[in-house]
Amino acid sequence: MFEVSIGLAAATMLVMALVMSYILGWANKKFHVEVDSRVEAVLEALPGANCGGCGFLGCSDYAVSIVADGAPVNRCPVGGQGCASRLAGIMGVEVGENLPFRPIVHCGAHLKDRLGRTAYIGEQRCASANLVADVQGCTYGCLGFGDCTRACKYDAIHIVDGLAVVDYDACIGCGACAKVCPRNIITITPFRSERVMAVTCSNKDKGKDVMAVCEVGCIGCKACSRLSEVITIEDNLSVIDYDRYTAECMPGLMKACEKCPRSRLVFIGKPATEDQKEGADVELPEIVAPDFKTTVDDTEWRG
């Protein structure tokens, strides 16, 4: 009797296995979705960093978007020009201009420059401190608690005297620092040369209000915009149009840099020989090199 029960159980399991195999086989054929072979080729050509610097969730998402939606092949900051060329070959398209994207921190105020700063004893994170009113006088400035440094996998951004500073030798432009900044003062910007000029301030208040909370913040005096055609004043703040940022605009930018009463126009990035020659007569302020959006809420990126 026992042997019969065992046999029946085994037979039942065998029948169930055969039925399930048939159902799974049918479902596999019925719901099979053809995958473009180019997706695998593109994915193989990508570096696999899954950093999100391309603007997609990861390398797989970017690969699908390239093949299915025609996304640009030059968006991978880790792979650079070589990766873009391989992807262009797979897709049969032109590479196009492949500018490196790097972060710019749009704040240049160290602790000594900040007025109205109060003691903060809460969780030592920017995201937490940003929820506290009057943690510092400027509601646009770097909080300096290092959320960006913890997010960076490449040890390319550090807090120096309360201010986020980018190490451009280590930075790959993945954008992790910009994503976690609660004040959106780090922006990922195309660099047409090893170093570019940036506005290291995000404060959009009027000049007198800026001076009340910061020793170095942009006061919107318009001196720079009168000297350079690529600088405009938007919401009381100087903004650089990087789409028009070319070698031809450098003389005006250099003059604007010299005339800025608050020294907020700063060269950032890795110095190149030509850049050093052009800036030889300009005393550049000792600031850092980060990327930008502005203010407490989510705003548009500016220069």
Describe this protein with a few key phrases.
single chain; 303 residues; alpha+beta; 3-methyladenine DNA Glycosylase II, Chain A, domain 3; Alpha-Beta Plaits; 2 domains; two-stranded antiparallel ribbon; 11 helices; 8 strands; 12% strand; disordered C terminus
Structural summary, described in words:
By secondary structure, the protein is an alpha+beta fold. The chain folds into 2 domains: 37-91, Orthogonal Bundle (3-methyladenine DNA Glycosylase II, Chain A, domain 3); 101-278, Alpha-Beta Plaits, CATH 3.30.70. It contains 11 helices and 8 strands. It has helices at 2-30, 37-45, 59-69, 80-91, 126-129, 147-151, 176-180, 207-213, 223-227, 250-259, 273-278; strands spanning 101-105, 157-160, 163-166, 186-190, 195-199, 231-234, 237-240, 265-269. The strands form 4 sheets. The protein has a two-stranded antiparallel ribbon with strand order 1-4. Strands 2-3 form a two-stranded antiparallel sheet. Strands 5-8 form a two-stranded antiparallel sheet. β2 (157-160) and β3 form a beta hairpin. α2 (37-45) crosses α3 (59-69) and α2 (37-45) packs antiparallel against α4. The radius of gyration is 26 Å and the shape is elongated. The termini are far apart.
